[in-house]
């Protein structure tokens, strides 16, 4: 059953967070067998989550099942604001049983000699708190729109010079190279920002 949702800003959050994770223990092999969009389990911070019912509603689309059945800790932490953890708790069905070497049991990136410190989450928490205190929306900024308009305008001008206004061979070659560069910039800048929901 999907949780009842309220909204914090533009993100759904559970209306109550009283459901705790069960004490069921799963092996990595058991979790790995749930690796499709129709049966999607994730391992995040050593806990196992059955997010199958959330897959069709996931704002990030199909990215949720890219690492289904495996450790998705780094993907989850890097793509989600901290308040999304409240929603995630609703899908917890147990924890992961690790063997003698947890690094080979579950494919997960770990910093050597981290001492249990979670630098990334500490930093992320401080940045989110700063944005909240300064009342800054980290996903929308006028510079992003100005950059997008500039990139698209340069692309259109280079296209027109390449195919219509190029009076010389050298000008056409230069315009073609510039057009190729602008296509890459549109992919790197505009599409990348949009994929992170930054518009």
UniProtKB/TrEMBL annotation:
<keyword id="KW-0479">Metal-binding</keyword>
<dbReference type="InterPro" id="IPR001199">
    <property type="entry name" value="Cyt_B5-like_heme/steroid-bd"/>
</dbReference>
<dbReference type="InterPro" id="IPR036400">
    <property type="entry name" value="Cyt_B5-like_heme/steroid_sf"/>
</dbReference>
<keyword id="KW-0349">Heme</keyword>
<feature type="transmembrane region" description="Helical">
    <location>
        <begin position="144"/>
        <end position="165"/>
    </location>
</feature>
<dbReference type="InterPro" id="IPR012171">
    <property type="entry name" value="Fatty_acid_desaturase"/>
</dbReference>
<dbReference type="GO" id="GO:0016717">
    <property type="term" value="F:oxidoreductase activity, acting on paired donors, with oxidation of a pair of donors resulting in the reduction of molecular oxygen to two molecules of water"/>
</dbReference>
<keyword id="KW-1133">Transmembrane helix</keyword>
<dbReference type="GO" id="GO:0046872">
    <property type="term" value="F:metal ion binding"/>
</dbReference>
<feature type="domain" description="Cytochrome b5 heme-binding">
    <location>
        <begin position="23"/>
        <end position="97"/>
    </location>
</feature>
<keyword id="KW-0812">Transmembrane</keyword>
<dbReference type="GO" id="GO:0006631">
    <property type="term" value="P:fatty acid metabolic process"/>
</dbReference>
<keyword id="KW-0472">Membrane</keyword>
<dbReference type="Pfam" id="PF00173">
    <property type="entry name" value="Cyt-b5"/>
</dbReference>
<dbReference type="GO" id="GO:0008610">
    <property type="term" value="P:lipid biosynthetic process"/>
</dbReference>
<dbReference type="GO" id="GO:0016020">
    <property type="term" value="C:membrane"/>
</dbReference>
<keyword id="KW-0408">Iron</keyword>
<protein>
    <recommendedName>
        <fullName>Cytochrome b5 heme-binding domain-containing protein</fullName>
    </recommendedName>
</protein>
